[in-house]
TrEMBL record:
Record Gene3D superfamilies: Medium-chain alcohol dehydrogenases, catalytic domain, NAD(P)-binding Rossmann-like Domain
InterPro entries xref list: ADH-like_C (IPR013149), ADH-like_N (IPR013154), ADH_Zn_CS (IPR002328), ER (IPR020843), GroES-like_sf (IPR011032), NAD(P)-bd_dom_sf (IPR036291), SDH-like (IPR045306)
Cofactor requirement: Zn(2+)
Recorded family membership: Belongs to the zinc-containing alcohol dehydrogenase family.
Single GO MF descriptor: oxidoreductase activity, acting on the CH-OH group of donors, NAD or NADP as acceptor
Entry keyword Chaperone: no
Domain Enoyl reductase (ER): 31-373
SUPFAM superfamilies the UniProt entry points to: GroES-like, NAD(P)-binding Rossmann-fold domains
Record's protein name: GroES-like zinc-binding alcohol dehydrogenase family protein
Keyword tags: Metal-binding, NAD, Oxidoreductase, Zinc
Originating organism: Perilla frutescens var. hirtella
Length: 375
C-alpha cells in the first residue's frame, strides 16, 4: 500500500440484516473527527475549525462483541437503530500513523489501545467525572456513529493509550471488554475482603472473573448453563463453578447450591447475564448487607423479588460501559495480574469471506469466546 492519500481505506460496512460488506471508508483530514464518525452530514461540526488533537491509526486488532452480532442480526440494539450503512466494530488496537499538531504523548509507530467513546466534556455528568453517562456520547459502531473495523480510523489522541512492549495489540483490543469487568468491580467495591459470585460465563462474565481476582477477591464462584464455559472459567481461576438451568422455578434450589459452593458469605454478585432468573438468583444468593451489580442486559425489563432483598439491605447498582479504565487494564496486562490471551479462541484476517465466517462463528457461540480480526 502507498502512503495516506494514495491508498483506499476499506472498512466492514453493515448494510442490512446479515449483510456485511468490505467497502471504501473515506477518512477526514486529521482533526475533522466527526466526519469519520457521523452518518449524517447535518451532524457535522464547523469544518473550518479542525481540532489538532486527533490521531490517525492503522487498525491491527479488532474483536467482535455481542453487540456487533446483535446489530448484524437485528439492525438494532435497545433504543439504537441502524438506519443507514454503518462501519462496525469497537474493540480495537492499532499503530499510530499520524498525529495532530497539539498531540504530545504519541508519535507515529506507537502501538495503542483505543477507548471507543467520545464524550462531550461539557455536560454536568462529564464535569462530575461520569463521562460514560454523557448523553452526547459518540461511541464506535453505535448508530449514528461509525466503528473501527477498518484499515485506518481517526480518533481523539487522548483516547489512545500507548501499549507497553510486553502487551500485544490483541491484548490491547481486549482492554475494551476487560474495561466492563473493571468498571463493574469498581462500582461494586470488589476487594480482598469480598467473596464474589459471577452470574454468566460468557465473554463479559469471564473478563469480570479475571478483574475480580485482580482486585483481590479471595473467593470467586461462577454460574452458567453451559458446561464448556464453566470449564473455561475454572481454568481461568474460578474457585468453584455451578451449573444452573434456565427454569425460574429452580432458583431456590440453585441459591442453596451456590451458597454451598461459596462456603462463605456471598458479599458481591456481578450479574453478567442480565435476565430475570439470573437477577433473582443474584438477589437470593447475596448475603444481607451485600451488593448486586447488574452488568449484562439480557432483558430490558425484569420481574425480580426486590422486596425480600431490600429488607436484607442488599444494594443494587448498575453499570453502563466504563470510565477511566484503560490505564488500569493495561497495568493489569503488563504486570501479568490478568491474562486475556486464553479468551481469544478464533482469529481471522480482513477479507470478505473472513468477516462473514468470523461473525457466523461468533454468533454461533459454542466454543467461541472472543473472535479477533488481525488486519
Amino acid at each position: 500500500m502507498g502512503s495516506h492519500g494514495e491508498e483506499e481505506n476499506m472498512a466492514a460496512w453493515l448494510l442490512g440484516v446479515n449483510n456485511l460488506k468490505i467497502l471504501p471508508f473515506k477518512l477526514p483530514p486529521l482533526g475533522l473527527l466527526s466526519l469519520s464518525l457521523s452518518l449524517s452530514l447535518s451532524a457535522l461540526v464547523d469544518l473550518s475549525t479542525p481540532s489538532p488533537h486527533d490521531a490517525r491509526i492503522r487498525m491491527k486488532a479488532v474483536g467482535i462483541c455481542g453487540s456487533d452480532v446483535h446489530y448484524l442480526k437485528e439492525m438494532k440494539l435497545a433504543d439504537f437503530v441502524v438506519k443507514e450503512p454503518m462501519v462496525i466494530g469497537h474493540e480495537c488496537a492499532g499503530i499510530i500513523e499520524e498525529v495532530g499538531a497539539e498531540v504530545k504523548h504519541l508519535v507515529p509507530g506507537d502501538r495503542v489501545a483505543i477507548e471507543p467513546g467520545i464524550s462531550c466534556w461539557r455536560c454536568n455528568l462529564c464535569k462530575d467525572g461520569r463521562y460514560n453517562l454523557c448523553p452526547e456520547m459518540k461511541f464506535f459502531a453505535t448508530p449514528p456513529y461509525h466503528g473501527s473495523l477498518a484499515d485506518q480510523i481517526v480518533h481523539p489522541a487522548d483516547l489512545c493509550f500507548k501499549l507497553p512492549d510486553n502487551v500485544s495489540l490483541e491484548e490491547g483490543a481486549m482492554c475494551e471488554p476487560l474495561s466492563v469487568g473493571v468498571h463493574a468491580c469498581r462500582r461494586a467495591n470488589v476487594g480482598p475482603e469480598t467473596n464474589v459470585l459471577v452470574m454468566g460465563a460468557g465473554p463479559i462474565g469471564l473478563v469480570t472473573l479475571l478483574a475480580a481476582r485482580a482486585f483481590g477477591s479471595p473467593r470467586i464462584v461462577i454460574v452458567d448453563v453451559d458446561d464448556h464455559r464453566l470449564s473455561v472459567a475454572k481454568k481461568l481461576g474460578a474457585d468453584e463453578t455451578v451449573k444452573v438451568s434456565t427454569n425460574v422455578n429452580d432458583v431456590g434450589a440453585e441459591v442453596k447450591r451456590i451458597k454451598a459452593a461459596m462456603g462463605a458469605t456471598v458479599d458481591i454478585t456481578l450479574d453478567c447475564a442480565g435476565f430475570s432468573k439470573t437477577m433473582s438468583t443474584a438477589l437470593g444468593a447475596t448475603s444481607s448487607g451485600g451488593k448486586v451489580c447488574l452488568v449484562g442486559m439480557g432483558h430490558s425489563e425484569m420481574t425480580v423479588p426486590l422486596a425480600p432483598a431490600a429488607v436484607r439491605e442488599v444494594d443494587v447498582v448498575g453499570i453502563f460501559r466504563y470510565k477511566n479504565t484503560w490505564p488500569l487494564c493495561i497495568e493489569f496486562l503488563q504486570s501479568g495480574k490478568i491474562d486475556v490471551k486464553p479468551l481469544i479462541t478464533h482469529r481471522f484476517g480482513f477479507s470478505q469471506k473472513e468477516i462473514e465466517d468470523a461473525f457466523e462463528i461468533s454468533a454461533r457461540g459454542g466454543t467461541a469466546i472472543k473472535v479477533m480480526f488481525n488486519l
